[in-house]
Amino acid sequence: MPPALIPLALVALGVPAALRAALGRPRSLGAAWVLAAAAVALAQAAGEISGSRLGVLGDAQLLLAAIAALVAAFAVSVAEPRHRG
């Protein structure tokens, strides 16, 4: 695994897990991880194409990746059915 992918993978796993620990949502953590991984990969590619240097660690676009993972985890949380009771 290239060194730039390690912090991106940690962001993709850590952001949804942190939201679940703090807020109890998203309940389907696996779906949040998959969507966050896709969002982080898209953010990395977008940052490389645009030449963004804000929030970069080595070759990893960490700021864009963290924002993308947060949006992905939030989207899964909103899409989940709410249990009444």
Description of the molecule:
It is built from 3 helices and 2 strands. The protein is mainly alpha-helical and 85 residues long. The protein has one domain (5-79). The protein has a two-stranded antiparallel ribbon with strand order 1-2. The longest helix is centred in the middle third of the chain and has 22 residues, at 29-50. The chain is elongated, with a radius of gyration of 14 Å. The N and C termini lie far apart (45 Å). 32% of the residues are buried.
Most strands sheet: 2 strands, antiparallel
In what range is the share of β-strand residues?
under 5%
Question: Can you tell me the number of structural domains?
Answer: 1
Mean pLDDT: 90
Percent helix range: 55-70%
Query: What is the tally of helical segments?
Result: 3
Q: What order do the SSEs take from the amino end to the carboxyl end, as H and E?
A: HHEEH
Distance between termini?
Answer: 45 Å
- What radius of gyration results from the CA coordinates? 14 Å
| Strand segment count | 2
How would you sum up the global shape?
A: elongated
SSE class:
mainly alpha
The main sheet orders its strands as 1-2
